[in-house]
Structure formats: C-alpha cells, structure tokens
C-alpha cells in the first residue's frame, strides 16, 4: 500500500523526486538552494508524517513513486 503523499509539502515532494534519482543530501540541497540540515529535517519530517520506519523506506517509496 502506498502512503498518502498529499500530506507532504511541495518542497518535500521535490526532495523525494531527487532522492528517487539517487542524489545525495548535499546534491539535493544544492539543487533546491537549501542547506543540508534543512534537507535532513524535511526527510525526517516525511518519515514521521508518512509513518515510515526509517530513511531507507523513504528512499524506496520515493523510487516507487517517482521512477
């Protein structure tokens, strides 16, 4: 079952899209003009909002949705 991504902000969805492409946190931060700390905070917020177990699960879901 796919989590409800409608609860995520547009920026969080952008981060997921870039995660799916295999970009590092630093590359995502550069691409979106954010700090790495902000990217990491958004990733943790997404894990919490979506009820996931860890960042690896977030990466898997990102790949399933955006690839």
TrEMBL record:
SMART domains: HTH_LUXR. Keywords: DNA-binding, Transcription, Transcription regulation. GO terms for biological process: regulation of DNA-templated transcription. Pfam families: GerE (PF00196). InterPro entries: Sig_transdc_resp-reg_C-effctor, Tscrpt_reg_LuxR_C, WH-like_DNA-bd_sf. One of its GO terms (molecular function) is DNA binding. Residues 1-66 form the HTH luxR-type domain. This is Transcriptional regulator, LuxR family. It comes from Spirosoma linguale (strain ATCC 33905 / DSM 74 / LMG 10896 / Claus 1).
């Amino acid at each position: 079952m796919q989590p409800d991504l409608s609860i995520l902000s547009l920026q969080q969805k952008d981060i997921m899209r870039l995660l799916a492409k295999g970009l590092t946190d630093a590359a995502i931060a550069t691409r979106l003009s954010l700090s790495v700390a902000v990217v990491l905070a958004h990733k943790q917020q997404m894990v919490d909002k979506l009820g996931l177990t860890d960042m690896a699960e977030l990466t898997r879901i990102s790949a399933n949705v955006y690839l």
